[in-house]
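DATA SHEET
Item: assembly model
Revision: 1
Owner: S.N.
Input lines:
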Amino acid sequence: MEHEITLIVNGTARRARVPARRLLSDCLRHDLGLTGTHVGCEHGVCGCCTVLLDGRPVRSCLTFAVTVDGAELTTVEGLAGRDGRLSAVQRAFAECHGLQCGFCTPGFLCTVTALLAENPAPTDDEVIDGISGNLCRCTGYQNIVKAVHRAAELLAEEA
Amino acid sequence: MTTRLFGERVPRREDPRLLTGQGRYLDDLGREALAAAFVRAPHAHARIRDIDVAGALDVAGLVAVYTWEDLPERAGRALPLLIPHPALTHGRTAYPLARDVVRHVGEPVVMVVATDRYAAEDACALIQVDYEPLKPVAGLEEAVQGVRLVHEDVPGNVGAHLVQEVMTADGRGAREAIETSPHTLAFRLDIERSASMPLEGRGVYARWDGRDLRVYSSTQTSTSVRMAVAAALGLPLPQVEVIAPDVGGGFGVKIVHPWPEEVLVPWAAMTLGREVKWSEDRREHFVSSAHERGQVQYVRVGFDDDGRVLGLDVTILHDHGAYTPYGIIVPIVTSTQLPGPYKPGSYRVEFTSVYTNTVQVTPYRGAGRPQAVFCMERTMDKIARYLGKDRTEVRAANFIRPEEFPYDQGMTFQDGRPLIYDSGNYPEMLRMIKELIGWDSFERRPGRGIGIGCYVEGTGVGPYEGGHVQITSDGRVHVSTGLTSQGQGHETAFAQIAATELGVPIERVSVVTGDTRRFGYAVGTFASRAAVVSGNAIALACRKVRRKALRIAADALEANPDDLDIADGIVHVAGAPSAAIPLSTVAVLANPLRYAFDDETARATQFAGAASPDRPPVAEGEEPGLEGRDYYSPIRSTFAAGMHAAVVETDPDTAEIKVVRYAVVHDCGRLINPMIVEGQIHGGVAQGIGGALYERIVYDQHGQLVNASFMDFLMPYATEIPHIETGHLETPSPLNPLGIKGAGEAGVIPVSAVIASAIEDAEGIEIDRMPLSPSDLFDLRTTHRP
Amino acid sequence: MKPPPFTYHAPRDLAAAVRTLAEVDGKVLAGGQSLIPMLNMRLAAPAHLVDINRAEGLGGIEADPAGVRVGALARHSEVERSGAHPLLTRALRLVAHPVIRNRGTVVGSLVHADPAAELPAVLAVLGGAVRVARWDGGAVAVREVPAAEFFVGPMESAVAPGELAVSAFFPALGAHDGVAFEEVARRHGDYALAGVCAVVTPRGAKVACVGVGPVPVVVDLGDLVNLDSGAPDPRAAADLRAAADLRAAAEAVREATEPEADIHASAAYRRHLVGVLAERALREAAREGAAARGA
Ligand SMILES: Cc1cc2nc3c(=O)[nH]c(=O)nc-3n(C[C@H](O)[C@H](O)[C@H](O)COP(=O)(O)OP(=O)(O)OC[C@H]3O[C@@H](n4cnc5c(N)ncnc54)[C@H](O)[C@@H]3O)c2cc1C
Ligand code: FES
Ligand code: FES
């Protein structure tokens, strides 16, 4: 049986017909064509699939699309401004070389966006704890940590 | 003036798309494609008696089910043995779908195609394969006993056996030199299996239009996949194109080809006349891609009172898994890179590469070097311990001196060429690393130790790469090279090279890699070779284009080409800035036209009067267009080097191990972009720490891979990786025009050795195996200080 | 790795949820952070899934002097943020990563009953209870299952098929009680290799251990350890005695456990570790309790 659902993705209401077992990650990627959300493990460990559900980061591979019918979602495609200007977090990642292959990046960006919304000036330990659920096989994390601090700086400057 | 770009921290060109979700990875393509999934062997070793697909036929969305018997003759052949070697006397490769025997858990047996992956997996679950289980060969020790066989026709499970020996100056072998040495030591070292584990799995997506086949693959070599696919499917090469889209990490595992899926998915697309896609999931990746690292080494060393090595004799048992598609590159690299920055007097190395009923072993970042360096550096530490000397002093006593380059190690390297180091300065590097970590002022105490590790890495192996550079009439520069990218920032580094060589703003340069439509001749991305080989090829191609541009501009400006320079995309006469012509115009002039489509091109049409009526529009020996192609084929490898040091703390009660400081000094010749190089090093070190303290692929005695998930294969998170301090030393390579050496693998290579050195220092217990978990350390403590 | 098909139910309240559970052979879906990985790997294939995420009245964290009642839909992160129970807060920081905690539920973790999970130990050491509901012909029937009976075996709790865990009750601590949770995990956020959750009161001490038995191993140490055990000056005679008591307590804990080996740790190491952690947790809890008493 298929379910008719509506997701508010990046501010736009999107409808989809999905079977109950459709993972939110697959729904975003394949039903809605938002392929920026990546899938690296489908068992909750890597964090590539992290999106914001009502503002909070969650694993889209461990969520059924039907469960969040009606919810507001933000994916990596929705982080930049409407005018296309990259968000502070995105700019900081570029500036600090916080990405290499870019596969883990959408998950980090969503996680960090929420982290800084809640804690605008995190300490080093808070940054590391905040990103501790996201794997990156390329960067060794050092520049990601740097990017989070830099994003906090940019956000403070722009506030 | 154009700013100097080579050597600068230029921001990456690939980032804007990757930061906004606009990257195009394999699974992002082909939204309408059918999905493939595989029934994979649940047994490590079994004969297939029967396959019953009946149960799956009612699954909604099922399109096709294929077994080996369904494959045409060519496609069904055993996969190629990519790198044959005389010592690989018993090379064996798998069939795309198991033919009669499965030899590791995860081997593909049945291919299912359905409307989506959910349905395909439903069908897989309903297919019954009747197996006759055979006894598996579960580990190295069991393999060498040779009682059970992985392949019936491979006696003793031995695929390859190779001895290389370098004599002393007076012609004595290593064993003899050891016998006559003042001191000798003998020991055994164990390194466990690990895996590349990129966050994006492999994947293949194929489109067939009835005549042409286009294949997208998450590969490290699109040109070679193209040739392999064309051969397997019996298609003329020009009808096959292979594209590596954005790739979410490779680290070696994606250099192997053709993977079964790279043959099967295009074949299914042709057979069904539909687009077909397969995206590997994580569990498949664990059991069906490739692993590396597993080795046992038996070492004997003889040395003098200063710790100088007089003879080194290493016997390696190498586990290559169930098949050898990539030949014996890994144990060859281990054996030849083992001497590192040292002169081991005389050196004998013997390896036996054996079959086990496990996933095949092919290069993972470092490709046999982490094992080599572990061996050599453990040896250095043991000598120091035995003599009561500082560990760095023993190393210094064995270094190749700066004035001894080029230095011939007397062996044949993995590229079949002599192992001759091009350049380096190891004493200076040692001084730098000691200073960076504070070696001499380190305060040692129980539970706190310092360690060091040195390595030399043959990089930039041939045979060749090429570059194509085209300047179009809008002044843009289009660069392409055949090798592929998996996050190394090639679009940026190669653009820096092109912009520097051509004197154009980097914004005007775009780079395409891994697309056979753009460049058909290439080898691939591995062995830290991209910057060296493609980088130089692109530089050479740019120089060709530059010469042509100056020739044409000289004509137009009525000047001597030698007096011209290019800056900011404009050719001008040196010292006379007004006598200038933009490259865009040069590009127009370079292509005499009959038809115009804008004002610029109108200037090159036949009645525009630009050309002399006395000469053919395209002069003899010239080609239309402002473009050039060139290749770089290195005479032999370059040799990068590095030294790492770490401070480690061990908990006296819980045996937890914490890396509190990590320092790297690194020489990869001239740096194109220090930001990118540092990123490569950070990532490599993190993988190295994974390999030293966390990651192991574990098979049980039945040949089941027991930790095939990210919950149990422990890749480090940010919480496990220390801050990494880096220093660069630049000894340019004399071998290539740009003087570069390559940096891709460097970070990972010595880490296990360094961490072992530091733990040994903290604990006073010899560390002879990697990785080491708290539980392992606890067990060591229990045996050594009961 | 895609979940097998199932029939989906999204009941709007408790009654509808238990009625559905009574009618179909189904599994409850709460935060999904343990269930969905198993479905994705096809290690479980329930015919029906009863998603309680839309059910009214199952959330909420209610604190009163007796303790804290956590509803079935209260996420780890909510409970952590509420600070309603200091031991729960401390344990939750050790559960997975912040992003997992945004979805995973406290009650789900208890029902899931992973022997290496932190929260079952908290419930066990505090002597809490889980409220379990089922459809009894015409109405919702509820029973309270005390912690001691709740954890039946590895990945097995007292919640029977057809039942729904409605809430969990964590008894409050006394004003002078000290608590601690010490664990060693391979990576930050991983399930523990071993862990010890300790409560030290003016009357005595109790620990619950994770990762060293099929269910949380509760050891009542009586008055072997008390608030003086955490005193900071190791030279004082009383403190020497306290240190000896701590060691004895650690030994008692070791003896009560029956750890097993897996790929991450040997049984001997786990046994050693649980003692070390017990000593640390007891000292820390005693120190905290002593400080509270002093204040
Ligand atoms: C990467 C990762 C790391 C993790 N690390 C840890 C860790 O270190 N420590 C730890 O404790 N946990 C860890 N977890 C698990 C996490 O805490 C889960 O959230 C928790 O175990 C289950 O809660 P849930 O709400 O997600 O339950 P679900 O996944 O929805 O359900 C789990 C099981 O409980 C049943 N169930 C759930 N709620 C009810 C109910 N109200 N009534 C009846 N049955 C119910 C379900 O039917 C299912 O069988 C980790 C998870 C992931 C993905
Ligand atoms: S894909 Fe969701 S956590 Fe890895
Ligand atoms: S950038 Fe490649 S995994 Fe993080």
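QC remark: Residues A 99-105, 136-139; B 199, 249, 487 surround FE2/S2 (inorganic) cluster (ligand 3) (CB under 6 Å).
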